[in-house]
Amino acid sequence: MGLEFNTETFRNDFTFKNSPRAIRRFPFPFDRDDYMYSVNMEPHVPGRPGSVFEHMFDVDEHYVAEMRDRAQVLADDPLRCQSLPHMELAGWDLLELIMESKARDYPQWFELHKNGNRWHWINRPMEIEQKFTFLDPTTLPCGPMEYITRQAQGDFTLQDQRDDNLWIEAGMVTTQADWSLDFDIGMSFHEWHAPVPKAHQMGVFDRALKFLLKLQHGAPVRRFNWTMTVDPLLDTSPENYPKWGPTKTTLTPENIGNRQHLRVELQTLHRLPRSNAIAFPIRCYLIKFEELVTIPKWARRLHRVIRDIDPELSTYKGFIRNRELMVQYLSQFDDGAPTSPGWWPDE
Amino acid sequence: MTKTLFEPSIRSRPVYGELSPRAGSAHLFIADGEGAEAITDMFAKAGADAPALLAKSHIIYMPGPYGTDLSAALQALGAAQFHRAPSFNAAELRIRKVLTDAHMGLQVYLAGTETVIGLAQREVMMAGLPFEAVQTEHRGSLSRRVQCVHCKGVTENVTTDPFVCSHCGLNLFVRDHYSRRLAAFQGVNIDAEDPGLVPAAVERFK
Question: Would residue A283 show up in a list of annotated catalytic residues for this protein?
Answer without folding.
Answer: no
